[in-house]
Amino acid sequence: MRSRPRLMIRCVTLAVTVALLPAAAHAQGGSGNDGFNVTPTGYVQLDFRGFSNWDVTPGTGRLNRDSVEIRRLRAGLDGQWKRMTFEVSIDPLDDDGVFVKDAYGQVRFSRALRLTVGQFKVPGTRDYDETARRLDFPERAALTLALGVGRDLGARFDGRVGRVNYEAGFLAGDGVGRNDRSGMTGASRVVWRVAKDLEIGGSISAGRTEATDTDSQNGVSLRAPSGYRFADAVYVNGRRTRLGADAEWTPGGWRVKAEWLRETDQRKEQGLDYEDLPAAIGTGFYSSVRRRLTRRIDAAFRYDYLALDDANGTTAFESVRPRATDIRARANHAYTAAGAWTVNRWIRLIGDVSAERYTDGRSAPRSGDEGAYFTAAARIQIELP
C-alpha cells in the first residue's frame, strides 16, 4: 500500500500541475504561432469496493484494490502543430509507480505512415488500446492487467493501408516500472476492418528476460479482476513471447468483444543444477457484451479467464516455488455485470458486481475454498476542466 506522505506530495504536485495547464494553453493561444494548439486534459476516478466474506485485507499486496481509493489522478497536455503532435500525461497513483505515463512526439508523413518516439503504450491488446476514462467496466480485463504489455520508451511506426491498421515498434522493454519488465522488445499489432461493424485483430511481441538471484522473481504474477493475486511470479530467463487475437462487432447499439492472449516465458538455467526448466505459460481470455440502453446509460457483461501453467504436463512434483520444476496449474474464472451512466460532460458513474471462482482452492482467498467470491464496485469519474 502506498505511504500517505508520499501520496499527499504527489497529489499536491498534480493539483498544481492541473491548475497551471489552462494558463499554459491560454499562453500558447496568444503566441501567434498559427496552427499550434495545446489542450489540457485530465480526470480523477474515485472508487468504492466491497469484498463479501473474504479472508484477505483490501489494499495489501495480496489484494491490491482498496475499499476506498483514488484509482486514477490523471492530467496532461495534448498538442499539435502542422503534421506533428505530442502528448504528455502524469499520474501520481500509477500502479507501476511511474509518475509520467505518456511523453511522446509524433510525425505524420501520410495516412499510411506515422512515426512516434518517446514513452507510449506498447502495441498489444485491444482492451489496452482503449482509454481508461471510457471503459465499460471499472477494471480492464484480467488478461490485460496480468499478461499484457504496458508503456515503455521506444519508437513506433503506424498507419492505415486500405482496411488494415498496423503498429510496429521497438522499445526498451514491455512495461517501464514493472518488476516483470523484459529487456529490448519488438511489438506489433494489426487490425483488419472486415466490415463497417466488424474488426479482427492480432498482436505479437518478443523480448528477453534475465533472472538474478539477488532480485525478486521476474515472471508475471496473476491477479483476478478483483485485484486478488492467486499465482505468484516465478523466475524466468530467456525469450518472452506474446501472441494475441481479438474481434469486435458493433451492430446498432451493441458492442461485442472477445480476446485471447498467451504469454510464454523461457526458464533457461533455472533448475537446482542450472538445468533448463519447462517454460512458464500464462493464458487469458475474455468475452464481453455492452448494450446502449439510452444516450447516456449502458449495461455490460464480461467473462474473464486467466491461468498459469508450464509447458509440460502435470507431475508429482507440482509446486508454487519460484523455481518449481512443475508449476502448479492455477486458474480464475470471473463473471461481471456492470452499468454506466454519463451524467454530463464532466461526470460519469460506473458500477459492477462480480463473482470469481478458483480452480486451486489452496490459492483462493479462503484457503481450500474455490468460491464463488463476490465483489461490488462503484466509481465516480470527474473530468478536470
Describe the 3D structure.
The relative contact order is 0.13. The chain has helices at 4-29, 126-129, 142-146, and strands at residues 36-52, 68-81, 84-90, 100-110, 113-121, 151-161, 164-171, 185-195, 198-209, 222-223, 229-231, 238-249, 254-267, 277-292, 297-310, 318-319, 326-327, 330-342, 347-358, 373-383. Strand 14 (277-292) and strand 15 (297-310) form a beta hairpin. It has 385 residues and is mainly beta. Residues 1-32 have low confidence and may be disordered. The strands form 3 sheets. A 16-stranded antiparallel beta barrel has the order 1-2-3-4-5-6-7-8-9-12-13-14-15-18-19-20. Strands 10-11 form a two-stranded antiparallel ribbon. A two-stranded parallel sheet has the order 16-17. The radius of gyration is 21 Å and the shape is globular.
Poorly predicted regions are 1-32
Strand content: over 45%
Helical content stands at under 10%
Strand order of the largest sheet: 1-2-3-4-5-6-7-8-9-12-13-14-15-18-19-20
Assembly category: single chain
SSE layout:
Blueprint lengths: L3 H26 L6 E17 L15 E14 L2 E7 L9 E11 L2 E9 L4 H4 L12 H5 L4 E11 L2 E8 L13 E11 L2 E12 L12 E2 L5 E3 L6 E12 L4 E14 L9 E16 L4 E14 L7 E2 L6 E2 L2 E13 L4 E12 L14 E11 L2
Parallel strand pairs: 16-17
Antiparallel strand pairs: 1-2, 1-20, 2-3, 3-4, 4-5, 5-6, 6-7, 7-8, 8-9, 9-12, 10-11, 12-13, 13-14, 14-15, 15-18, 18-19, 19-20
Key traits:
single chain; 385 residues; mainly beta; 16-stranded antiparallel barrel; disordered N terminus
Quick take:
The protein has 385 residues and is mainly β.
